Every structure is written in C-alpha cells, then in structure tokens.
Amino acid sequence: MEDGFSSYSSLYDTSSLLQFCNDDSASAASSMEVTDRIASLEQKVQMQEDDIQLLKSALADVVRRLNITEEQQAVLNRKGPTKARPLVQTLPLRTTVNNGTVVPKKASGSLPAPSGARKETAVPATAKSTIKRTSSSERVSPGGRRESYGDSKGNRNRTGSTSSSSSGKKNSESKPKEPVFSAEEGYVKMFLRGRPVTMHMPKDQVDSYSLEAKVELPTKRLKLEWVYGYRGRDCRNNLYLLPTGETVYFIASVVVLYNVEEQLQRHYTGHNDDVKCLAVHPDRITIATGQVAGTSKDGKQLPPNVRIWDSVTLNTLHVIGIGFFDRAVTCIAFSKSNGGSNLCAVDDSNDHVLSVWDWQKEERLADVKCSNEAVFAADFHPTDTNIIVTCGKSHLYFWTLEGSSLIKKQGLFEKQEKPKFVLCVTFSENGDTITGDSSGNILVWGKGSVVAVGTLTGRWFVFDTETKDLVTVHTDGNEQLSVMRYSPDGNFLAIGSHDNCIYIYGVSDNGRKYARVGKCSGHSSFITHLDWSVNSQFLMSNSGDYEILYWIPSACKQVVSVETTRDIEWATYTCTLGFHVFGVWPEGSDGTDINAACRAHEKKLLSTGDDFGKVHLFSYPCSQFRAPSHVYSGHSSHVTNVDFLCDDSHLISTGGKDTSIMQWRVI
C-alpha cells in the first residue's frame, strides 16, 4: 500500500507542475496568436484536472473493493466453512462514495450518513431502504429470480445507453496485414478485413514511391467556427437568453452561445457525448449541462455526468454524478430562493431517479425513485427551496425535501399532446438557406439553379432552387440511392444505388431535362462514392465490399485497362478508396470506419469523416500508410459527410444521429 500511496502522491509533485508551467511546446512550432496559446494551455490544465478526478474515482473504487474483501474474509474467518449459498446473497451492499471519499459499510449492516444513502421516501434509513435500480441488462425469470447479463457489482450497468455515438466497434484481434508495394506492376495493395484492395499509381510516381516515406502534417488546421442545428426533437427547457445578449442551446456534444446581433458563436466543448439538458443559474452566468453515457473508440465507458461551467470564460467549475447517473441526465435545474446553491437532476434509468445536489461541494443530498415513465422536466419552486416539481408521461409530482429524504405528493395531471419539434432555419454568409425538418433532415439550398435529391425508395427529384418548383421525378430501382454526382461539364448525372448499379442520365436545358443513358453494372455490393474525371469522360466508383471500378459513363462500359485509368485527372476526390487517399485508413480498420472524404479545390488538403465522430485533416495526396492528420471533435455521432466550400475557406461536416451541421474555418 505504501507504493500505491507514493505513486498517488506523485500526481501533486511540484516539480512536474513547474515543468508543465515552463513547457512552451504549445507555441514552439506554431504561429498561434496569444489567445490561442492561452486557450491551449487552459485545455491542458483542464485535461489534467479531469485526469486527477478520474484517478480519485479509481482510488476510491480500489479502497472500496479492499474494504469489501477484508470484510468478507473476516466473516469467513469467524464462521468457518458453511454451506454454499447463491452468489446474489453474498454480495455486499454498495459503498457510498461522496466527493472522492469512501465511506465503508458499518459492521452492523446499516448504511452510513443519510447523505450517502439511497432511500425510499417514507421508509427509515436502514440498509434495506437503499434504492435498487433495475438495470437495462437485467430481466426477471419466470420463477422470480433476477438474472443479470452484466456486472453484478454495486455500480449500475450502462449498456442501455441512449447515446447516438457509434464508436463502440471491436478492434480486430488478429494483427492486420501491412500494405504491399509492387514497383514492377506499379500498384499499392492494402488489406481491409483480410481482403486485398489494389490501387494503381501514376507512372511518374512509381520510381520515387516508397511505403517507408514519411508524410508531414498539413500546415493548415481547423478551428470550429459555426455549429448549425438545435436539439428540440427529444429535449425541453434548453433555450435561454443570457445577459450578454447570447442565446445558449446545444446540439450534439457542443453547447452553443450564439450572439444574434453580432452573428457570432462561442462553444463549450467539455462534454464527450450528447448533451441532453441545460439549466442557467440565478446569477445568469453559471450554466449546468448534462450528458448521456457512451463508449469511447477504445471501448472504455464514458459515464453520464453534469458539468457546471462559467459562460464568460467557458471554464469548467465542477463535475458531479460520475458513477451515479445511469444512461443519461435528462433534466436539471438550479434552486432559486437560496441563491442557486442546490441542483436537482433526473437520470434516464428505469426508475428515473431524482437527486438533489450541493453542486459547489459536489455532494448528493438526497435521491429517490421518481417514476417508471419518462420524465420531461424538473424544477425548484421559485420561493421554496425544499419543493421540487417533476412532470412527465402520465404524472405530475410535488416533492418536499426533508433532511435526506424526498416526500412525494401526486398532483392533478392532464395529459397534453406531445409538442412538435422545431429544429432550425438559418442562413450562411453567402446567402445559402439551411433548413431542418421534423424527420431530422437538414438541407442546404445553394445558389445553383437546380438541386437533385435521392430517396430511400429509388425515387429522385429535381427542384428549382429559385422558384422552389418541382422540375422532374424519376425512379431507378427500389433500393436506397446513396450518392448523386453531376459531371463537371453539366451534361451527365450519375446516381449510385444500393442495388449495386450506377444509373447515368443525360442532362440538358440547364438541368431541367433528363434522359436515361443506361446503367453501369459490375459491382457486387452497393455503391458508396462516385467521382468524375476533369474531362467528364470517366467515372470512378467505390462499393461496400471495397471495390474500385472505372467507367466510361457515356457508354456505360467498365474500363479494365490499368494503363488507361492510372493517370486520369479527377475533378473531385470523394472516394475513400484509391491510391491518392489510402493513407487515411487507420491500422486495423474494418473498411466501414471512414464514411466520407473530400479533397480541397487547391488539391493540397484532404478531409475525412469517420464513425467515431471525428473530422480529420490530411495533406493531399495522402498515399502513405497511416498518414498523420489533425483530428477534431464536435460531433457526437458518426460523421456522414464532409465538403470544402468553393474557395476552400471553410469545411462543412454533417453528423448522423446527432443531426448537426458544423462549419469549420481553414486557418
């Protein structure tokens, strides 16, 4: 134990702190301005504070486990061998952890101080009054025995998380094959899930190419500049006006502070998954936001929590509820009559537990099962700090805080019609209109005269963006249309479908007349990406089983000659498979991790969006395995697409289930 305490105390070694303060690596090789340098240092400090908090929690858990083990051993030593009993009966009660301090269970079996006990309202504070939550991974067998598919420990299983993050993929157990370069044939072969993908390179690069060559990080970086969208489809009480003139709301894992008059946004990015609720302190400066549980890329659990932060400096003040909340925090509110010293929260567990906190001390004052139905809102009474009102599906409750207990009184409830969700309507600087609908779709209407839209049923539409009139409707197959691309000269439209075919249409009359030329058949899986050549004579396609095929679209014929295709100049590069972009794939990828790619118009940068909610920025061409990149967070779900604006000044990224659009300035 002495070694453990010495290693733990090293966290507060003043020499390491002095070394960190003297570390100027944030500015040594960068041209960042003073404000950016300060922000970088603040971010480092915040990361260290978060690490310390996690270490405290881990140490508390270790001490708790040691106490349990010692207690069980003492019982065995006193009683000696006994009959075998079911494991469920021998499990100890949950040890209370308050603000990083472990409170061991008393020898009598009763729980310690009421502040740590999870009690039913009208029952005395005994060991049996501790709230038992039914985890989402539990079920009750016909004989009445409770079966659990997860951990039997006191901590609740979070496998029922409502997070929209899709980052819980399993890493491949076997070591992935390294790419192979053939100088004789002039190609590079990479492997995805054991399947080879061959990419032929231009002739002028064969002699000088090497797999061992190092690729430098791009000199350009991305800075989150604008976040489009508002989460109104399943959240309430999440839009407030601050004294600074800013409107505060959230989308994905970002809390947006939007100044309507100055058309500026600031962003709080302390969360690591979907934000579900927001509350403003009576001082109108301090803000609390709660998030869902999730899973990181490496499989680690990201517990739900509430973060209290300063809306002026955007600094995190306190983090509460780590290890207590289940699935998500759906409702939070500050007390009003006592200066906002208390905070109430409702999680998304099966029992929707209501808890009251002294957020400045990070201590839980009381908690109780609120309802088996969904809870929509919770708030303190404006004149009585001890009264909390909660409402949700089929219920309205008035709670009175008495000591460490919450006493419930049921009020009259009149069921209301579920409100419709309004997402967002806004405009970009160049005049484009951005709209969001109740189905979660966000559309960008540019300055072009027509826009083509594909659907899930094989139908596609062409609209006039000026008059908003429907120009034409066509149907190709009955499968989802995944990608549509106009040729650079505007004379063709290529449509990739999930029926493994590419449909080619001739376009005339400024995009108002379409005549089907034919379809390109040859892929063995659905079409994922399409790119036209500069002269509009060739088409490159990727499919769901990692094929790279080339076509003459005017004749709907496949090009099989490597000599013909290897030196083609492409007008765009959105395909995720190809010699010029294969370096974007991380080691061990299963072939579906990268959803989108886009080359800048100046052909110096390449951006990708992946399944882990990350936006990457590479140097182009990206033809070295495991090429380095700048990585940016903001999306809480998989990134469905990325695209540079026409002048390469900004990058637009779109989220999947988080239904967000983010605008990044290239700096």
Question: Can you tell me about this structure?
Answer:
The chain is mainly beta and 667 residues long. Among the domains are: 184-230 and 573-666, Methylamine Dehydrogenase, Chain H, CATH 2.130.10; 270-410, YVTN repeat-like/Quinoprotein amine dehydrogenase (Methylamine Dehydrogenase, Chain H, 7 Propeller); 419-447, no CATH class; 449-567, YVTN repeat-like/Quinoprotein amine dehydrogenase (Methylamine Dehydrogenase, Chain H), CATH 2.130.10. It is 11% helix and 37% strand. The chain contains 6 helices and 47 strands. A 4-stranded antiparallel β-sheet has the order 8-47-46-45, with no helix packed on it. It has a 4-stranded antiparallel β-sheet with strand order 9-10-11-12, with no helix packed on it. Strands 13-14-17-18 form a 4-stranded antiparallel β-sheet, with no helix packed on it. Mean pLDDT is 79; it is low at 1-12, 25-31, 81-132, 134-172, 412-428 and 430-446.
